[in-house]
Records
---
Amino acid sequence: DVKVTQSSRYLVKRTGEKVFLECVQDMDHENMFWYRQDPGLGLRLIYFSYDVKMKEKGDIPEGYSVSREKKERFSLILESASTNQTSMYLCASTPSGGATDTQYFGPGTRLTVL
Amino acid sequence: RKEVEQDPGPFNVPEGATVAFNCTYSNSASQSFFWYRQDCRKEPKLLMSVYSSGNEDGRFTAQLNRASQYISLLIRDSKLSDSATYLCVVIFTSGTYKYIFGTGTRLKVLA
């Protein structure tokens, strides 16, 4: 059974703070993804990684960076949090990035930036 | 035009009813299709894949219409526990495989 965990379920930060969101998967998946989900906008891809130390920008990378030093761990970094980054952040992983691979999601981190 | 479009709903249906949702996609090169279920304040979870020939899993039936570029989800004999948001997901190749999520259709099954 695939398990994807995220470091926090709820997080409250102040504008300008540096924020780290961590995601860990235990199934040796190659690919990992960070999304944010906002009402009416659905899931939007921030960054993804298909291998250790590799990363690709998604649709909305501005204001974010990522780190993948180990295969099982993918971190999302908000260098200087802003109120428009208040959102639900979802991490996901897939085995190999094939067309039939389903995505397995972590429980999400609900971030509020004050 | 959005790459993947869904009616946001909510669809309010009584228990035992049959309900169907559609999801349209714009990229004719789309290769794979899925339905996910998302409960309030929870993560999306895979409900079922959608195959070209159509597929059924208990009360749930998924179909793909490539000519008209839509997928559908039919739920028979609705249960209260079916209340959730249903997301369609389309995968196509753009260098790497790209997952496009619809914004979801909200279903409320009423007692």
---
Amino acid sequence: DAEITQSPRHKITETGRQVTLACHQTWNHNNMFWYRQDLGHGLRLIHYSYGVQDTNKGEVSDGYSVSRSNTEDLPLTLESAASSQTSVYFCASSSSGSTDTQYFGPGTRLTVL
Amino acid sequence: AQSVTQLGSHVSVSEGALVLLRCNYSSSVPPYLFWYVQYPNQGLQLLLKYTTGATLVKGINGFEAEFKKSETSFHLTKPSAHMSDAAEYFCAVSPMNTGNQFYFGTGTSLTVIP
């Protein structure tokens, strides 16, 4: 069955370190998204991609970067982790078009000390 | 920018009672509308969505939602709550002709009292 996976599921890091969160989907979807989930804010879009070599900034992109070298993967990098980036991160993917369902991964809980 | 409002960050209902979770959007052009559910320590799962056609849409687990253009609303209902419905519920909108960007509400935590 097609799926979307995230790794690691839990990560503890220190302020200033570079961190990369992995997202892999086997749906063969064009669109991939990264969100962060924080109490009182719901899910907020960090970055998204509509295809290979395409990346776009979302609502809360400062301090984060992504690259899309193939269809299956969209890794999220925190260049220099800050305590404000402690959050739960979700990756999602969808086929294309405004009506398509986004399918979510299980999430990565990141703690920055 | 799109705005999605979910009234009530916490809702409690008795088992067997009606569930009503509210969602309003701000847009002069109706977007596509979605409801997702999140169980503890899991990702989001689609409950139902409205794109075109019949304004009352049925989803999984007995949930349904009605799109009301005049009220810019897409409220989620279930006639009889089960203990297993306890979860976080998110309303999301996807504006037309903007790719597949979603804007999420802040979520409503549903508690079911036995």
